[in-house]
Design goal:
Layout: E1 31-33, E2 38-39, E3 50-51, E4 55-58, E5 66-68, E6 73-82, E7 86-97, E8 104-116, H1 122-138, E9 143-146, E10 153-154, E11 159-163, E12 172-178, E13 184-186, E14 200-208, E15 211-214, E16 222-225, E17 231-238, E18 247-252, E19 255-261, E20 264-266, E21 286-288, E22 298-301, E23 312-319, E24 325-334
Parallel strand pairs: 16-24
Antiparallel strand pairs: 1-4, 2-3, 4-12, 5-11, 6-7, 6-9, 6-10, 7-8, 8-11, 8-12, 12-13, 13-20, 14-15, 14-17, 17-21, 18-19, 18-23, 19-22, 23-24
């Protein structure tokens, strides 16, 4: 199923417009990992390279921070001993609008939890009992238990679990927003207010073939390419932990030639990370600026409309989630 043409979100000053679900932990928001970031292959976990499917937020190094229901809904499933998520909980919100499809209903996945359930509500106690029984029965095996929508219903503000470090990670909370079939991943920034940190967009260098060109302020290097040249840019958003940008745009002259937009992608696209990144790691991001592939992430690809027989002026624009922007220029021409 394709979703590229149904995005009806209004953009103001290049920042995401929020749907304003309540933030699920009672502390100041500190984003440590952004939606769509590069995640490499793990031989130990038998996972291939993929896009980060949600956002990571700090719990201040603590285990056991209250996990709070962001809106009225029900727990549709829990996972225990998942190789990536550790202990995870999926909270279905049937009345919350899916802003990509305009249908009712989204799912929130919370991962790396220390425990599921809480004594403060009847549903929380029953969910905690179920979690304990599953742990006793399956030990260290991976298990996912699915529940009837009537079984574990919660109101907005109810405690549904505790944050942790399961999945062999430092303590933090991983948050995903999915459609009700778990086939579509949506940028959680559409639903949660991610604060107003002192962020800075940095565009560091561009690479064409085997050559690298610094993109310091005032630099305007000449980049020569051929039809098969791999063109990429290294850029990130500087926070306390560097994260990936929200959007990358390449203009040649006045034409928007190429655009990467971390808005949403499908389960199938989750593992097509090599269509957007090249030579990247979890902390160093090289984004491709040319690819023959279409996807929900590559939202403009007009290289066929560009005449590079003569030197052209190019401009890179990189935007973060919070409305900050950086621009750098270079010249580009086809090698003869």
């Amino acid at each position: 199923m394709r979703f590229r043409l149904v995005l009806l979100v209004i953009i103001v000053a290049s920042a995401i417009v929020f749907a304003q679900l309540s933030f699920p932990i009672p502390r100041a928001v500190d984003v440590t990992g952004y939606f769509g970031e590069f995640r490499g292959t793990s031989r130990e976990l038998s996972y291939s390279g993929h896009f980060h499917t949600g956002i990571d937020v700090s719990t201040g190094g603590r285990i056991g921070v209250d996990l709070i229901a962001s809106e009225q809904g029900y727990v549709s499933s829990i996972m225990i001993n998942h190789p990536l998520y550790g202990t995870a909980l999926i909270l279905a919100l049937p009345e919350t609008e899916n802003i990509i499809t305009n249908e009712k209903g989204v799912e929130l996945l919370f991962a790396h939890l220390d425990s599921v359930g809480d004594f403060s509500t009847a549903a929380g106690r029953r969910l905690g009992d179920m979690y304990s029984k599953l742990r006793q029965e399956f030990g260290q095996e991976f298990v996912e238990a699915e529940f009837d929508p009537r079984e574990f219903r919660f109101s907005k503000g109810d405690i549904i679990g505790k944050t942790g470090d399961t999945g062999d990670v430092p303590p933090h909370l991983h948050i995903e927003v999915r459609d009700m079939s778990s086939e579509l991943y949506i940028n959680p920034g559409y639903y949660f207010n991610l604060g107003n940190p002192d962020s800075e967009v940095q565009i560091l260098e561009i690479r064409a073939g085997g050559r690298s060109f610094r993109l310091d302020a005032g630099a305007n290097p000449l980049v020569e390419i051929t039809e098969g040249t791999v063109l990429s840019v290294r850029t990130h958003v500087r926070l306390r932990h560097n994260v990936s940008p929200r959007r990358i745009e390449l203009f040649i002259g006045d034409l928007l030639v190429y655009q990467i937009d971390f808005s949403h992608f499908t389960e199938h696209e989750r593992y097509t990370v090599d269509n957007v990144y090249t030579n990247s790691t979890k902390t160093v991001y090289w984004f491709l600026l040319r690819t023959p592939y279409e996807s929900n992430l590559v939202t403009a690809n007009r290289w066929d409309s560009v005449d590079l027989s003569e030197i052209q002026q190019a401009r890179l624009v990189v935007r973060d989630h919070w409305g900050n922007t950086a621009e750098r220029t270079f010249r580009i021409v086809s090698q003869r």
